[in-house]
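Propose amino acids for all 420 sites.
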C-alpha cells in the first residue's frame, strides 16, 4: 500500500519542518461547515499551552467535495487578541488527502506516518464535527503525554444519559471486563498518544481491513491497553456534535463497532483470558457539571422494533442463545410498555453469547451482528424506562452495576471460549 510520504508536496513540507514536538490530526470528509472552528481551537491550544514547542496540525481528508480542505487552510485566529504575553512559535499546517480504502482508519494512518516521520513526542486526534471543542482540549489530550510520560489518553466527557448508548450498554462494559481498565469512553473519537505508540500502531497489519474503514477508535484503545502501554483519561467537558436518536437505525454503526470489538477478542484472547475484575485508570482534568443538549427518544417505536425482531429473527437466535434467553424473549414480547424490562444478567448473557457465536463462526458475521440490532434497541428502551426520572449520577451507577455483571459472568465466557 502506498505511503503518504511518497507524495512530493508532503515530503517537501516534512523536509521543511524536519522535526516537531506536538502534532494534532483532524480526519475529515465533507466537514466544511464545522472544521474551521476545530482548526481555530487547535491553533489556540498550541499558542496558549505549547508556545515554546514546535507544533504541527494535520488535516487528513477523505476526498471532500465541499471545500473542507480550503476551510482548513483559511481558518486562522488572531493570536494577539487571545494572548498578549506568550512568545508563540509558528505552528505548521499540512492538509493532504489520504491513501487507502475510504475510512477514518486510513485517515489516522496518514497522521501516524507523519508523526513518525517528524519524530513527534506527543500527538492527538480530534473529530472534525465537534461544536464543543476548546483550546483546553489540546492541553488535556497532550500534556499527560508530554509531562506525565503516558502513552494513551482517552477522552472523558459528560454526555446526555441517552447519548452514546452503544458505548454505555456494550462497548464500555465489555472492554472493561475483558481488559481490566475502566476507560469510560473507549470509542470517544478524540485521543492523545505518544510518538512511541504511533510508531507501534504503524507496525500492525490492519490497514486493508475493517479497522481502516471504521474500527479505528476501539482498535487504538484496545491495542494500547492489551500491549501494556501506559493509559489514562482526560475530562474534556461536554461532547456536543450532531446527536443521534438511540432508537433510529443504528444497525450499521452497531455492526461496525461490535464487529471490531469481537475481532479484537480473537487477536488478544491470550491477554483477556488472564484478567479478573477491573481497576480505575488515572483521570486528568478538573471535572465540572455541563449543560447538555437533549436526545429525543421514541419508546413505542423502540419496543415495536424489539417485538418485530423477536417475530422475525427467533430462528437465527435459537442457534446460539441459551434456552432461558429464548423463553425470556417470548414472555417479554407480550408485556405492556410499562412492564418491559431486560435485566443486566440477561443482557450480559446475550452479548457473551453473540461473542461466542462470532468466535465459533456459527453464522455469517454480518447476519449475526445485524440480528443484534433489535435486542440492543430493546435493551435501550428498557434502560430509558428505568432511568426516565434518574439524574446523571444515578444513571452512572446503573452503568457501573452493568459493568460489574459483565465482570462476574466473564468466567462463563472464558470456559465456553476454551471449549472450542
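Proposal:
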Amino acid at each position: 500500500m502506498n505511503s503518504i510520504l511518497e507524495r512530493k508536496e508532503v515530503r517537501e513540507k516534512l523536509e521543511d519542518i524536519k522535526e516537531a514536538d506536538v502534532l494534532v490530526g483532524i480526519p475529515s470528509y465533507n466537514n466544511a461547515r464545522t472544521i474551521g472552528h476545530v482548526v481555530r481551537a487547535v491553533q489556540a491550544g498550541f499558542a496558549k499551552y505549547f508556545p515554546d514547542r514546535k507544533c504541527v496540525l494535520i488535516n487528513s481528508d477523505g476526498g471532500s467535495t465541499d471545500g473542507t480542505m480550503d476551510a482548513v487552510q483559511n481558518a486562522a485566529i488572531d493570536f494577539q487578541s487571545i494572548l498578549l504575553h506568550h512568545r508563540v512559535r509558528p505552528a505548521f499546517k499540512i492538509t493532504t488527502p489520504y491513501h487507502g480504502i475510504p475510512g477514518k482508519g486510513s485517515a489516522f494512518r496518514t497522521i501516524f506516518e507523519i508523526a513518525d516521520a517528524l519524530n513527534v513526542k506527543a500527538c492527538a486526534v480530534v473529530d472534525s464535527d465537534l461544536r464543543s471543542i476548546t483550546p483546553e482540549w489540546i492541553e488535556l489530550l497532550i500534556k499527560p503525554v508530554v509531562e506525565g510520560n503516558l502513552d494513551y489518553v482517552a477522552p472523558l466527557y459528560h454526555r446526555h444519559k441517552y447519548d452514546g448508548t452503544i458505548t454505555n450498554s456494550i462497548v464500555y462494559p465489555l472492554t472493561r471486563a475483558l481488559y481490566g481498565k475502566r476507560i469510560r469512553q473507549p470509542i470517544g473519537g478524540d485521543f492523545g498518544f505518544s510518538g512511541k505508540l504511533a510508531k507501534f500502531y504503524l507496525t500492525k497489519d490492519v490497514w486493508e481491513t475493517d479497522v481502516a474503514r471504521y474500527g479505528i477508535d476501539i482498535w487504538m484503545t484496545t491495542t494500547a491497553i492489551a500491549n501494556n502501554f501506559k493509559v489514562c483519561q482526560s475530562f474534556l467537558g461536554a461532547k456536543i456534535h450532531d446527536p443521534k436518536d438511540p432508537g433510529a437505525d443504528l444497525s450499521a454503526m452497531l455492526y461496525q463497532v461490535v464487529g471490531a470489538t469481537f475481532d479484537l477478542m480473537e487477536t488478544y484472547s491470550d491477554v483477556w483470558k488472564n484478567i479478573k475484575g477491573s481497576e480505575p485508570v488515572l483521570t486528568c482534568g478538573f471535572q465540572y457539571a455541563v449543560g447538555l443538549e437533549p436526545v429525543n427518544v421514541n419508546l413505542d417505536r423502540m419496543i415495536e422494533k424489539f417485538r418485530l425482531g423477536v417475530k422475525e429473527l427467533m430462528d437465527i437466535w435459537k442457534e446460539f442463545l441459551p434456552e432461558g434467553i429464548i423463553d425470556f424473549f417470548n414472555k417479554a414480547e407480550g408485556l405492556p410498555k410499562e412492564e418491559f424490562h431486560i435485566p443486566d444478567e440477561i443482557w450480559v448473557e446475550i452479548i457473551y453469547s453473540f461473542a461466542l457465536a462470532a468466535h465459533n463462526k456459527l453464522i455469517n458475521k454480518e447476519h449475526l451482528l445485524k440480528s443484534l440490532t433489535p435486542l440492543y434497541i430493546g435493551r435501550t428502551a428498557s434502560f430509558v424506562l428505568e432511568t426516565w426520572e434518574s439524574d446523571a449520577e444515578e444513571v452512572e451507577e446503573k452503568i457501573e452495576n452493568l459493568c460489574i455483571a459483565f465482570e462476574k459472568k466473564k468466567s462463563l465466557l472464558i470456559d465456553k471460549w476454551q471449549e472450542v
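Confidence is low (pLDDT under 50) at residues 79-85. The two ends are 35 Å apart (CA to CA).
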